[in-house]
Specification:
Layout: H1 3-11, H2 21-44, H3 51-71, H4 76-93
Helix pairs in contact: 2-3
């Protein structure tokens, strides 16, 4: 599915009220990322976790990520490009490792 098609379909499924949508998107993203982490924890301890279950949760992460990107007037490909440029710059500067925004 093309991301432009994805967004147009997902726009019709967004039921969050505009007055607190940002908070809902952020909490939803964190919650879904936590579900991915929970499944990975189970996988790490040897439980039987189906790949499809993890992929389903990653899809939920994508939904909230797209909602946040749209809230700030960006598209998912914009985020990919911005992140690519940042990581290439950090690689060139030798600052891929470390923490914080100012590297």
């Amino acid at each position: 599915m093309e991301l432009i098609t994805y967004r147009s379909i997902m726009d019709g499924l967004d039921l969050y009220p505009a007055d607190n949508a940002l908070e809902c998107y952020v909490f939803g993203l964190v919650s879904e990322a936590g579900e991915v982490a929970g499944k990975m924890k189970k996988l790490a301890r040897g439980d039987d976790v189906k790949k499809e279950a993890i992929i389903q949760e990653l899809g939920d992460v994508l939904w909230y990520l797209d909602r946040l990107a749209k809230y700030f007037n960006y598209e998912i490909p914009d985020l990919a490009s911005i992140n690519h440029d940042k990581l290439v710059r950090r690689q060139q500067e030798g600052t891929l490792r470390g923490d914080g925004d100012s590297r």
